[in-house]
Amino acid sequence: MGLMEQYRAKLVSAGQAVSVVKAGDWVDYNFGLAQPVTLDKALAARKDGLKDVKVRGGLALQPLHIVEVDPEREHFCYNSWHLSGYERKLSDQGLCHYIPMIYRNMPLFYRKSLEVDVAMFTVAPMDAQGNFSFSLTNSASKAIAEKAKIVILEINERLPVVAGGRENCIHISAVDFIVEGDNPELPVIAPAAVSAVDKKIAAIILDNIQDGATIQLGVGALPNAVGTMIAESDLKNLGMHTEMLVDAFMTMAKAGKITNLAKNIDTGKGIFSFCAGSRELYDWVNANPTLASMPIDYANDPHTMAQNDNLVTINNCIEVDLFGQVTSETSGSRQISGTGGQLDFLTGGYLSKGGKSFICFTSTFTDKRTGQMHSRIQPHLPECAVVTNPRTQAHYLVTEWGIADLAGRSTWERAERIISIAHPAFCEELIKGAEKLGIWRQSNKRG
């Protein structure tokens, strides 16, 4: 049977495709821009005939019909690997549960531990060889498809095709059903607003990047500020090895800063695992020979990324304590996002020859309700806060007040260095906290 004959034989309506879902099944929606739209609507329409269908997804960038039609969660139970802004609101309402993970382990979780009855996710159209590109999401797509008892693909002609990589497509022979979707516009993420404080922090990081360095950027205003400043700087011959491909990389590449030619591995290629950003970014990714989409167990493997000398990793956090523990995903017990790959890159950056791993944050934030300013540096993390980065893996912390290198430092050295980058209004309070914890030596107290 030829490829088009196989295609036509497997082509069904969305309603026919989701009819295979049974009560009690585990259904996988994949991650980010791979999450289904037409199939999600069709599954939600089956609500009254289903009970206890558990759905895994992550970084949902648009509303999920299975959640919206079932606020009592009698029919569908949605779970997320990493909370988007939308999923955070669902979590606050008790409509989404977080799945803890270190991102590089995601494919292994599927291959080794998880049950998948039905996988349904969005891909680009089939090519002449019978392959469907995973497009903008290659985190664990192949692993999910391998583990699933039934694989349903939803085609979106707007999804770009990634030119190269590994485990970045699925052949029609491994697919059970195909649904030609409604081809909706792809959700976009607007660039985060960059403040004067963000620019000050970015300038500190920029001074620590050299020509030929390989860059990883997280999402948010601070990494965006760094990328923009690199594009406007004299730096040259940079490389890209990241989990998330964001607009800042495109900006740097178009400015001629990224060539990937100084990398020790994947020379000439910018490595990423998933992508989300602007419409312009999606167009730039399409058939771009300078990019390679890799599964997350490659992109986020610390020992793989560390083969690149001078790897610089740049990520945000929410709060830090005086021991050097970092939370980047919760505010107390409230889940904000997820661990993602921050710990992966924190480790890989330190392992790299000449590498540096930066966790950056504004020293304070203002409570929107009261207008009161609070320090992001605390003597100890709030009750129930989740430690994203343990103190044992701490490297560089950066605020607008400076940079603190914590690697290999004792508890009192850490306390001194962390307090030195706190907002001056909170330093005395933090010193008292350190004294109470028995980690203050008073050798570096500011006058």
From TrEMBL:
The listed locations are: Cytoplasm
**Acetyl-CoA hydrolase/transferase N-terminal domain: residues covered:** 5-188
Matching InterPro entries: AcetylCoA_hyd_C, AcetylCoA_hyd_C_sf, ActCoA_hydro, ActCoA_hydro_N, Butryl-CoA_acetate_CoA_Tfrase, NagB/RpiA_transferase-like
User: Its annotated pathway?
Assistant: Lipid metabolism; butanoate metabolism
Point out the signal peptide segment: none
Superkingdom: Bacteria
Q: Which residues form the active site?
A: E243
Q: Which GO terms describe its molecular function?
A: transferase activity
Domain named Acetyl-CoA hydrolase/transferase C-terminal: which ranges?
277-433
What Enzyme Commission number(s) does the record list for this chain?
2.8.3.-
**Catalysed reaction equations from the record:** butanoate + acetyl-CoA = butanoyl-CoA + acetate
> Is the keyword Protein biosynthesis assigned to this protein?
no
Keywords (A to Z) from UniProt:
Cytoplasm, Fatty acid metabolism, Lipid metabolism, Transferase
Where does this protein hold CoA? G218, V219, G220, A221, L222, I318, G341
As for what it does, the entry says: Coenzyme A-transferase that converts butyrate to butyryl-CoA.
Family stated for the protein in its record: Belongs to the acetyl-CoA hydrolase/transferase family.
UniProt xrefs under PANTHER family: ACETYL-COA HYDROLASE, ACETYL-COA HYDROLASE-RELATED
- Supply the name of the protein: Probable butyrate:acetyl-CoA coenzyme A-transferase
| Encoding gene per record | cat1_4
